[in-house]
């Protein structure tokens, strides 16, 4: 029987965007917004204030990431992937624990 996962136990603070080409990368947010915020081409951080996250906030995110990694490895072993994290493992984890990932990721298709 699967244990119900609480969404708040698997929540990290993520920014609104990352570098082009890094869509599948996990980025650990250490600051909020942009210290420069004067690029004419970028509308993302306008009228927002730059701030640095506390060490405790960052450590909390790292702990959440560790819990998700542990779940991924557990599912990988159950599926016969011997701990390797393959796309099928991620999809299975998302299906098993929608309370962590929500409905949005499962509705995205390759065509979108």
Provide structural commentary.
With 112 residues, the protein is mainly α. It has one domain (29-107). The protein is 38% helix and 4% strand. The protein contains four helices and two strands. A two-stranded antiparallel ribbon has the order 1-2. Helix 1 packs across helix 2 (87-96). The longest helix has 24 residues, at 55-78. The termini are far apart. The model has no long low-confidence stretch (mean pLDDT 83).
SSE order and pairing:
Elements: E1 31-32, E2 51-52, H1 55-78, H2 87-96, H3 98-101, H4 104-107
Antiparallel strand pairs: 1-2
Helix pairs in contact: 1-2
Q: Give, in order, the helices and strands.
A: EEHHHH
| Terminal residue distance | 34 Å
Report the major sheet: 2 strands, antiparallel
Helical fraction equals 25-40%
- Molecular shape: elongated
Please, how many helices? 4
Give short descriptive properties of this protein:
mainly alpha; 112 residues; 4 helices; single chain
Overview in brief:
By secondary structure, this protein is mainly alpha-helical. Helix content is 38%, strand content 4%. The chain has helices at residues 55-78, 87-96, 98-101, 104-107, and strands spanning 31-32, 51-52.
């Amino acid at each position: 029987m699967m244990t119900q996962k609480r969404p708040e136990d698997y929540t990290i603070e993520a920014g609104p965007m990352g570098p082009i080409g890094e869509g599948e990368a996990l980025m650990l947010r250490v600051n909020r917004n942009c210290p420069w915020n004067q690029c004419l081409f970028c509308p993302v951080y306008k009228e927002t204030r730059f701030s640095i996250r506390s060490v405790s906030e960052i450590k909390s995110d790292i702990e959440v990431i560790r819990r998700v990694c542990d779940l991924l490895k557990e599912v990988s072993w159950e599926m016969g992937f011997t701990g390797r994290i393959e796309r099928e493992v991620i999809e299975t984890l998302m299906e098993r624990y929608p309370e962590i990932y929500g409905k949005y990721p499962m509705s995205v298709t390759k065509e979108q």
